[in-house]
Write a structure and sequence with these properties.
The chain has about 450 residues and is α+β, with helices and mostly antiparallel strands. The protein has a domain of about 260 residues: Cytochrome P450 (Cytochrome p450), CATH 1.10.630.10. Strands 3-4-10-7-5 form a five-stranded mixed β-sheet. Strands 6-14-11 form a three-stranded antiparallel β-sheet. Strands 1-2 form a two-stranded antiparallel ribbon. A hairpin with a 2-residue loop joins strand 8 and strand 9. Helix 7 runs antiparallel to helix 8, helix 12 crosses helix 13 and helix 13 runs antiparallel to helix 14. It is globular.
Length: about 450
């Protein structure tokens, strides 16, 4: 359907390029009256008006981008034209690399990038494996005793253990875990707070103070040269940088530490939780992954990675990526004015039937067969693409795959109940507990 035949009005912009098709006010008002989630409005806009479309929640239009070529244009080809502004998570992560912009972001990313390459990742493989073995041992005990566990809670503890070992060289202890539960509490509260909030409101002030105390203690230990049993970690890299780079104050080191904690465990834990919920609906997917090859084989690892990728297709790490146009431009033939807010939405791109046949069906084979998935880089981007793509992509895939190599062959999970909907915040997470029991361990 071309733009002239779609319902709604048009955003008329002078200059080259076609006007962007825009949803009429009646669609937005109907959505508001129904009390729907933002994703519901975006889904309707995408279905009615296509992969570059506008809608208004205020006086100015916001442009939704889901078309793969337009996605690549915004995120990868012209990131200097489409920038991040104030990040909602800034209250939690401060000036860490997730929220930083401009030259500060470039310097911070350059320092961290080498830690997450293939070579850099080898420093953390043993720590990830140790965290996976700890979880596997605990699951063996759950299965032996028949104790109920919360799958989401177990995934959060594993992912937090893996990133804590990588940051500090120490295994996660119970006290640190209790205090760092404040990270998830603040992250869950962020969508309910004003986007431009800078001072901690009463609702999260106590949790932020707990996070700051943990960070302060860890930084002091790293500065004193107190490495863990596995040697120095990422935090020591940040502390060492402060000796040559005055911008790495204690506050910035704290912000980077919290950024790595948030990015290094919340998204992985959510992905693994969704994966187990999906395997509950599609049990043959687990059987196929285990049958792909022997334990430790490249074939089995590839099949397990396909489980993770298909989960990330349905529930990407960041379901929406806001940008702001700094200059006039043309996206996929449509004119965009400087000052326009852009929402790139991997959640919807990954569910586009023209790109992903039967898009709501969980089918890991999409990532195992030559023609199973679209090849355009803008069609699958659960960690973003371009210069602001997530630094921890390889870390997240490694820890997810390593844990599943330990748990999938040993246990099947039986959920007592499952969440009935998703919560759309910084991530897309199951909206509720995930109590389950495990089969008895193999002898």
């Amino acid at each position: 359907m071309d733009s002239e035949s779609r319902p709604g009005s048009l955003t008329h912009v002078p200059g080259t390029g076609r006007p962007i098709p825009e949803a009429g006010p009646e669609l937005v008002e109907r959505w508001r009256s129904q009390g729907g989630e933002l994703v519901d409005l975006l889904s309707q806009v995408r279905e009615l008006f296509g992969g570059v479309a506008a809608f208004r929640l205020g006086p100015a239009p916001t442009v939704l981008v889901t078309d793969p070529q337009a996605v690549q244009h915004v995120l990868a080809r012209h990131p200097q034209r489409y920038v991040k502004r104030s990040h909602r998570a800034r209250l939690l992560v401060g000036d860490g690399v997730l929220a930083a912009t401009g030259e500060a972001w470039k310097r911070q990313r350059r320092l961290l990038q080498s830690q997450f390459t293939g070579t850099g990742m080898r420093r953390y493989e043993q720590r990830i494996t140790a965290a996976a073995r700890t979880t596997a041992k605990q699951w063996h005990e759950y299965a032996r005793t028949g104790q109920t566990l919360d799958v989401g809670g177990e995934m959060r503890r594993f992912a937090l253990d893996a990133i804590w070992r990588s940051l500090t060289g120490h295994a996660l202890d119970d006290g640190t875990e209790r205090e760092l539960a404040a990270v998830a509490a603040v992250a869950a509260a962020l969508p309910t707070l004003p986007a431009d909030v800078t001072d901690a409101p009463d609702a999260v002030a106590a949790d932020l103070a707990r996070i700051d105390a943990v960070a302060r203690h860890a930084i002091e230990a790293a500065r004193c040269g107190t490495a863990g049993p596995d040697g120095p970690g990422l935090l020591h890299v940040l502390v060492d940088a402060a000796t040559e780079r005055p911008e790495y104050t204690d506050r910035l080191i704290r912000d980077e530490l919290v950024t790595l904690l948030v990015a290094g465990h919340e998204t992985t834990a959510t992905t693994l939780t969704w994966l187990y919920l999906l395997l509950d609906q599609y049990p043959t997917a687990r059987e196929q992954a285990l049958a792909a090859g022997a334990e430790g084989s490249a074939q089995r690892r590839q099949a397990i990675q396909a489980l993770v990728h298909e989960t990330l297709r349905l529930y990407p790490s960041a379901w929406i990526l806001p940008r702001h146009a700094t200059e006039d431009d043309t996206i996929a033939g449509y004119r965009v004015e400087a000052g326009t807010d852009i929402l790139v939405c991997p959640y919807l791109t990954h569910r586009e039937p023209e790109l992903w046949p039967d898009p709501d069906h969980f089918d890991p084979r999409r990532f195992l067969t030559p023609d199973g998935r679209p090849t355009h880089p803008g069609a699958y981007f659960p960690f973003g693409i371009g210069p602001r793509a997530c630094l921890g992509l390889q870390f997240a895939l490694r820890e997810s795959t390593t844990l599943l190599e330990h748990l999938l062959p040993a246990h099947t999970v039986s959920f007592d109940s499952t969440p009935t909907k998703a919560a759309y915040g910084i991530t897309v997470r199951p909206d509720g507990p995930t109590p389950a029991t495990l089969d008895r361990p193999r002898t």
